[in-house]
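Incident log, support desk, overnight shift.

02:14 A customer reports that sequence design results differ from what the structure should imply. Their input is reproduced verbatim below. On-call engineer (initials T.W.) acknowledged and began investigating.
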């Protein structure tokens, strides 16, 4: 396993250097596993703490097994969400939602908060068939400096009509490092966008790792030919 902490083969390091390299290599191996387990454990605990207090005390799992079972709240939340979604697809559910939204529309502050959260939820969860099309290279923030971007759609409507370009305009999301969930929405002429062969996942790894992980199975430290 090659890591950034492996010592050069032509040197003969001392005992302390070998121990240090082994320790740092162990951190590289352990950290992703530990952080993944910790994140899952924390999310499950957060869902449990939000769901279980809503359940009457006589129906709490702890009343029957005598111990606090982590994850029961997640299971209850999933079942409840599926039932709500199933009801919402029916005529009665759509009528109830329409009535509730008409009531919310009469509340000035609540209306703005609800509409914003609804739009974000529909974009992230409901429209799962929509995703980035390709990874690309663009010159940003000026010519001569290159950045990784993701092609989302072809620009439409007023944005496409008013832009002073002869061809199609592409919507490009430029992520930040190391957090690719934030970034910038830019519109580029199609001829200024270079599509890459790497997948969306490989480009995301490149961004998250700050350029340390390239999509090349033979040598991860070198870009693909």
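02:41 Re-run completed on a clean worker. Output:
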């Amino acid at each position: 396993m090659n890591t950034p902490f492996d010592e050069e083969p032509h040197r003969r390091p001392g005992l302390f250097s070998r121990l240090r390299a082994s320790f740092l290599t162990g951190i590289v191996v352990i950290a992703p596993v530990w952080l993944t387990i910790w994140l899952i454990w924390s999310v499950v605990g957060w869902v449990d703490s939000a769901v279980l207090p809503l359940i009457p005390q006589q129906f709490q799992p702890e009343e029957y097994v005598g111990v606090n079972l982590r994850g029961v709240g997640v299971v209850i939340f999933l079942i409840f969400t599926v039932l709500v979604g199933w009801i919402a697809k029916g005529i009665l559910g759509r009528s109830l939602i329409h009535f509730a939204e008409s009531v919310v529309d009469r509340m000035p502050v609540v209306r703005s908060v609800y509409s914003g959260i609804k739009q974000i939820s529909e974009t992230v969860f409901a429209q799962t068939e929509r995703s980035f099309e390709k990874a690309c290279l663009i010159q940003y923030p000026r010519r001569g400096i290159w950045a990784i971007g993701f092609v989302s759609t072809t620009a439409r409507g007023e944005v496409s009509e008013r832009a002073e370009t002869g061809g199609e305009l592409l919507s490009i999301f430029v992520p930040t490092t190391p957090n690719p969930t934030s970034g910038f929405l830019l519109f580029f002429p199609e001829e200024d966008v270079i599509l890459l062969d790497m997948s969306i996942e490989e480009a995301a790894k490149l961004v998250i790792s700050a350029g340390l992980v390239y999509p090349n199975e033979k040598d991860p430290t070198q870009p693909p030919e």
